[in-house]
Specification:
This protein is mostly beta strands. The protein has one domain: Jelly Rolls (Sandwich). Helices cover about 5% and strands about 35% of the residues. Strand 3 and strand 4 form a beta hairpin. About 30% of the residues are buried. The model has no long low-confidence stretch (mean pLDDT about 95).
Length: about 170
């Protein structure tokens, strides 16, 4: 199977409700700064997408979080940013009432290339997961719209695609 990968240059046919927000790196002789969340970014923040908390995860190269499972929330939306390394974030739409039901999107994210430096908003009820595709570990920031609630967090068997194919596509073992 041949997968199509998305970034800022390729955003056609996104899963309904998915938002991509370009991040801008400001550089001067002392280094660089990237704003990761602002209250005036009304596409990814506001009453419809409140700021509740933020966390960071570190994952080794070639590892997919929940290799054979999808992650899903009924009430929470996630806002992912890859701040170090490179990841592929996978979304699959199982929603019966969605125009994009059964669609798979794979997003290449990371801070090294301008077209891969963005925030992705993952709609509630959309299955998702991610894998580190860089040789070094990947660091992911998430700004979820709900506090952690074990009752809202679900794991569903992944029969829609293969993380192994993603590894092969990016030259990993």
């Amino acid at each position: 199977m041949i997968y199509q990968y998305f970034n800022l240059n390729n955003q056609q046919d996104l899963i309904e409700g998915t938002i991509i927000r370009k991040l801008v790196q400001h550089t001067d002789p002392t280094g660089s700064l990237v704003e990761t969340m602002r209250s005036d970014w009304t596409d990814v923040f506001g009453d419809h997408l409140p700021f509740i908390m933020q966390y960071m995860s570190k994952t080794p190269s070639g590892i997919a979080r929940d290799e054979d499972k999808w992650h899903v929330h009924q009430k929470q939306e996630d806002r992912f940013i890859c701040v170090s390394g490179r990841i592929v974030t996978a979304l699959w739409d199982p929603r019966q009432d969605s125009k994009t039901k059964d669609k798979l999107n794979l997003f290449v994210m990371g801070p090294e290339k301008e077209e891969e430096m963005y925030m992705i908003v993952i709609p509630k009820e959309v299955y998702h997961g991610f894998m580190v595709i860089s040789q070094k570990e990947g660091y992911l920031l998430n700004f979820p719209t709900q506090l952690y609630n074990v009752e809202d967090e679900g794991r569903i068997d992944n029969t829609q695609f293969s993380w192994q194919q993603v590894r092969e596509d990016f030259g990993l073992k």
